[in-house]
Amino acid sequence: MAILGAMSIVMAIWFADSLSLMRIWLWMMSGLWLIRVVYQIVKPQGRMIPGLSRIMQALFAATTLMFILPAIVSSSR
Q1: What is the pTM of this model?
Q2: What is the pLDDT along the chain (77 residues), one digit of tens a residue?
Q3: Residue 66 CA: distances (Å) to CA of 3, 5, 7, 27, 30
Q4: Cα–Cα dist 34/75, whole Å
Q5: Torsion 37-66-69-5 (CA) sign
Q6: Can you give 7-46 as a three-state secondary structure string?
Q7: CA angle at 65 for the pair 63 and 67, rounded to the nearest 5°
Q8: Alpha-carbon distance 68 to 3, whole Å?
Q9: What does R_g of the chain's alpha carbons equal in angstroms?
Q10: Residue 55 contacts by C-beta under 8 Å, 6 or more apart in sequence?
């Protein structure tokens, strides 16, 4: 996921003029992060440290929102 996050930054710089490509990339990343949130719910990681699993869930959900909201805004234009 870290490599895909770095690629998101690179894509935003290299293909800033191509709005359709950026929309596709945002929706693809939104889907991947949403799958990661569901996977964290189904099979939680970080159970050895109390509370870590919930923190990871919250961070994954926040990251998902950071991709979904711009994707929705860019699609409405």
Answers
A1: 0.78
A2: 778 778 887 887 887 788 888 888 889 999 999 999 999 999 988 888 888 999 999 999 999 999 899 889 888 87
A3: 17, 12, 15, 11, 8
A4: 18
A5: negative
A6: HHHHHHHHCCCCHHHHHHHHHHHHHHHHHHHHHHHHCCCC
A7: 75
A8: 19
A9: 14
A10: 46
| DSSP string over 40-76 | HHHS-S--SSTTHHHHHHHHHHHHHHHHHHHHHHHHT
Give the integer Cα–Cα distance in Å for 69 and 30: 9
Q: Which two structure tokens, joined as six digits, stand for 16?
A: 């800033």
CA distances from 59 to 10, 23, 36 (A): 22, 23, 11
